[in-house]
Every structure is written in structure tokens, then in C-alpha cells.
Amino acid sequence: MTTSTMTAIGAFAADSIEDSLRDIVVDIPDPRPRDVLVRVMAVSVNPADWKVQAGITADSEPVILGYDAAGVVEAVGSDVGTLDVGDEVWYAGDLNRPGSYAQFQTVDERIVSPKPSSLSFAEAAALPLTTITAWESLFDRFGLTRESTGDLLVVGAAGGVGSIMMQLAKALTGLRVIGTASRDESRGWAHNMGADAVVDHRRLREETLQVAPDGVDLLFSPHSAGNIDDYAAIVKPFGHITAIDEPAGLDLVGLKAKSIAWHWELMFTRPMFETPDMIEQQRLLAATAELVDNGTLRTTVTKTIEDFSAAGLREANREVKAGRAIGKIVVTR
């Protein structure tokens, strides 16, 4: 590599992520023994970006955000055994390390996989974080298999996680999938992503019980605040809920009468703590790539912004934060 510096987008202390992002120049990171150095070609925007930015203080160094990427391996650490220079890869990164809003990024090989060969970098960048979240929710938290049956309710079906979760559930389990959406556009998207039925989240209890009069077995929740009473009414006794949000003061006592189990899912847990099974993220991304390449799964990208700069990422974050985006928004070079 002929230069020791790279361009990146730094996040600074500010009231919003749009005001926070600026173009910066920093040193290219050196790979650790199990790292690959990736030339980042495309990223997608996630709420995780905003949560990290909100914690930046005025005396902090700029933080490189970004927890979804697709790119090309430029170098490998001394102990890397699963990837090679030149591999086209995808991954979702690690909250403890600099992110993908940069020209280059170092990532532990155990959470990186070859991307689907049938997808462009932009199409691939839409999927890793949401796929890992959905996969771990379905198969680690809920413990599902191909033989599993019953009803799964996916709240926020037209969002990034919901869009891939419904596809995975239909492809790899025997579940009936119910999604929540309200607008005609998002309802149509949910059906296209695999929902067998779609209910309006504004009438969650009423419409869900019309579709599943005895209640649902499983519920995925990205928006838990204010919904626990409805969840208690629509989840069967001994059912399971997996949540990915953390609203302050969340009270789960209403779930006790039915012995409903509550699970947390954070796809960063494995890399943050370098768990013994950390390589499961590489394996599930590789399995997903195979499902994409054989036509079972489709990308969830709905908009691509061809401006890998602070301006382009400000635009992408602004659109996602507005709360009306369907699928994923990607920024590419």
C-alpha cells in the first residue's frame, strides 16, 4: 500500500448524527493477527450508528461509525486462515472498534464471510447486521429448526431486520409469519418479503387476534415501549419474545401470568466479548450468501446513495431516522 493515511467520516459531539458527521483523514489501521484489512466499497445505515453517536462527548476523539459493510480484503493478519487478499466480503463489525464509514477497516476474520457472488457491493452491504440479528433471534434465541411450526409475529416487518427475518423464517422453518405494517407501500413490501399475513401495528392486539385467535407462539420486537400489555394479550402461554431495543423503565411483569419468556438479542455480543463461538457469525453469513446466490433470499436494499462522504452519509441517516424508510438505504463509492 503506497500511503499510510485514508479518508473516513468522523462523528463528533452534536445534537444529531446529521450535524455530527465530517470528512476526516486518519491513519490506515494495522491488522491484528486475526484481522483482515478491508477496502470498504459500500455501507448501510443502522440505528446502532445513532446510539453510538449520542454517547460522544465534546472532549472525545472523532468516532468512525458504521456497522454494515461490503468490500475487498487488502491484507490479512498473521493468524488469518479463512480469508485471502482479494476476497470480496461482507460483515457487520464490532462496537468496540472503528466502523465502516472509512476507506479501510480492520475486522476479525471470525465475523467476516465472502459476500454473495450474485450481489453488487451495494446490494450486499444492506444485509449483514440485519441478517445476523434475524438469524440469531430465530435460531439462537428462539431455538428454531426446519421442523418448527407455529405463528411468528414480526413487529416492524418492513424494516431492515423484519425484511430479512421473514425471508429466513419462510425459507428455514415451518412457521406461519405475520408482519406488522400500516402504509400500503410497507404492507406490500412485507408480503413480498414473505409475510403470510400483515396486520396494522396501530391495531396490534385486535388485528393479530383476528389472524391468530389463540395467539402467537413467537414475537420479534424492535419497538417494545408501550407494547407490553398488547404482547401479553397476543402471545400464547409459554410463548417467547425477542427484543432488540432497550426502552428506559421497561416493565415486563405483565408477561408473568402466561410465563412468557423474554430474550434480548444484540448481534454485537459475540465480537464484543470474543465468545468461544464467535466464528458462528462467519458461518451464518456464509450460509446466507449461499441462500442469496441460489435465489432463496433477496437483498433488502431500496435506495443507493452514490456518495461515500459525510454529505452522503448525512443524507442516508436523515432518511432512515425519518422512520418511513422501507428496507435498507446504502451508501456506495
Automatic annotation (TrEMBL):
Gene3D superfamilies reported in the protein's UniProt record: Medium-chain alcohol dehydrogenases, catalytic domain (3.90.180.10), NAD(P)-binding Rossmann-like Domain (3.40.50.720)
Domain Enoyl reductase (ER) residue range list: 19-331
Keywords: Metal-binding, NADP, Oxidoreductase, Zinc
SMART domains: PKS_ER (SM00829)
MF-aspect GO terms: oxidoreductase activity; zinc ion binding
Signal peptide as annotated in the record: none
Pfam families xrefs: ADH_N (PF08240), ADH_zinc_N_2 (PF13602)
Family under the similarity heading: Belongs to the zinc-containing alcohol dehydrogenase family. Quinone oxidoreductase subfamily.
Record-linked NCBIfam families: adh_fam_1
Record's protein name: Zinc-type alcohol dehydrogenase-like protein
